[in-house]
């Protein structure tokens, strides 16, 4: 499980964007739903998600772990198991407590984090978007939206399940071309909390015994 988590968070959690090499198709109903959710999240001072992260092969989730995600503007903090990722608006800090390692890097300008809400922005340029009707997910009669890459990027397709009434994401499934699957199922959502001012700050002094690598 540790290897899968590391692979997803430190690797495929930053998904390279692709260009508009082919004609893009976006269903109008799906676009309206996704744009409404994006506007809702963007209108908040900050957002918090408690979720379960599942991974597996051949479309079947075999392992799940709890995770939390905080976001305020373009800053975020993501934690799953012993791995934490912080973006302070400038650099991404990948912190692995088990291996006592920290990797620091500037994000690629055309990259997007695999988070509870990452595809709300990247779909506009990188995916064909179709509305696939309703499906009950975690007790919610959710709208089912499918994203298919315009150009090969290692992802076969992405499923988004949305509570349109609340304008919130319910579940996200990312299916890789190599048959890997990664799933985020949101369990709890909060907004406009009074967060610690240092929530998105990496304090190097807390990791004196860690191997720190800046790329």
Describe the protein's topology.
Layout: H1 2-12, E1 14-16, H2 28-42, E2 47-57, E3 60-72, E4 75-80, E5 83-87, E6 92-96, E7 101-105, E8 111-113, H3 119-126, E9 127-137, E10 140-149, E11 155-163, E12 168-176, E13 180-191, E14 211-214
Parallel strand pairs: 7-14
Antiparallel strand pairs: 1-8, 2-3, 2-13, 3-4, 4-5, 5-6, 6-7, 9-10, 10-11, 11-12, 12-13
Explained architecture:
InterPro entries: LolA/LolB/LppX, OM_lipoprot_carrier_LolA-like. Pfam families: LolA (PF03548). It comes from Chryseobacterium flavum. The chain has one domain: outer membrane lipoprotein receptor (LolB), chain A, CATH 2.50.20. 16% of the residues lie in helices and 49% in strands. The protein is built from three helices and 14 strands. The protein has a twelve-stranded mixed beta sheet with strand order 9-10-11-12-13-2-3-4-5-6-7-14. The chain has a two-stranded antiparallel ribbon with strand order 1-8. It is globular and about 50 Å long.
């Amino acid at each position: 499980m540790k290897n899968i988590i590391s692979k997803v968070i430190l690797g495929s959690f930053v998904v390279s964007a692709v260009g508009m090499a082919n004609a893009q198709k976006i269903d109008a109903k799906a676009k309206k739903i996704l744009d409404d959710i994006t506007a809702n999240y963007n209108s908040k001072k900050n957002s918090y998600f408690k979720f379960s992260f599942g991974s597996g092969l051949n479309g079947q989730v075999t392992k799940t772990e709890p995770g939390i995600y905080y976001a305020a503007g373009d800053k975020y903090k993501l934690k799953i198991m012993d791995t934490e990722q912080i973006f302070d608006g400038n650099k991404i800090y990948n912190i692995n407590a088990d291996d006592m390692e920290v990797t620091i890097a500037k994000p690629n300008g055309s990259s997007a984090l695999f988070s509870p809400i990452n595809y709300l922005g990247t779909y506009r340029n990188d995916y064909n978007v179709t509305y696939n009707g309703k499906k009950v997910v975690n007790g919610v009669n959710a709208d089912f939206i499918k994203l298919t890459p315009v150009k090969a990027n290692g992802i076969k397709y992405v499923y988004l399940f949305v509570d349109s009434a609340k304008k919130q994401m319910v579940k996200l499934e990312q299916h890789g071309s190599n048959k890997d699957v990664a799933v985020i199922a949101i369990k709890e959502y909060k907004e406009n909390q009074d967060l610690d001012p240092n929530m998105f700050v990496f304090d190097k002094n807390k990791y004196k015994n860690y191997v720190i690598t800046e790329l």
